Request: fold
Amino acid sequence: MASKQIGSIRKEYGIGELSKENVNSDPIVQFESWFKEAYEREGEEANATTLSTIGLDGHPEGRIVLLKFYSEDGFAFYTNYNSMKGQELENHAYASLTFHWKTLERQVRIRGTVEKTDPIISDDYFDSRPRESRIGAWTSPQSQEIADRSVLEENELFYKNKFQGQECIPRPPHWGGFIINPQKIEFWQGRASRLHDRIVYQLEGSDWKIKRLAP
Reply:
C-alpha cells in the first residue's frame, strides 16, 4: 500500500464524550467502568495493552501484554523475569501501559513505578493457567536467540515428560508477575474534528488531582 494511500486514511470520532464533571474521583473506579464496557464490546482481548519500558540501551521499547488483574495497588501482568522486558524492568523500574479500545473510541494510558508481585500471588495465578501454558513457561528461554523452532519443540517434549502424571506443575523461579503502581492515568475519548477529550489523574501525595488537557 502506497504511503500516499496511508495518508488519506481517515476516521471521524464522535460516539462519546468525557469531562471532569462526569468521571469518578477515583481513577481505578473509572478504569473499571471503562474496562467492563470494553470487555462487553470487544471480548477476550480487551485486556491487551502496550507495555512500554526503557531498554537496556536507553531506548524505548514496547510490546503487547495481557493485563491479569488490577486494584487500588496497581495493574499486573505476568512474564518470564529473564525476558528482555523483565531485565529492563529490573534495571529501570518505571513503565507505562496503553489500552486502545477501538469500538468505543477510547484510550487509557497508565504510568508508574514497577515491582514484582508477591510470590504467593504469582503461584496462585500460575496454578490457574492451562497445563500447556504452565509447561510453556518452562519451555521458552524468552528473548534469547535460538537456532530454530526445534529448540522449543525439544524443550517442550522434555518438560512434558518431566511433568508427566504430575498435576501440580511448580512455577518456574524465573516466571512471575509485575505490578505497575500508577502515578498518572489518562483517559482519552475520541471526539469530532480531532478535538478529543483528555482527562488526567495525577497522584500528588496520597490524593488524585484531576486535570483536563487539550488534545
Notes: Residues 13-124+175-213 form a domain with the Pnp Oxidase; Chain A fold (CATH 2.30.110.10). Residues 92 and 111 are 13 Å apart (CA to CA). The mean pLDDT is 96. The longest strand covers residues 175-189.
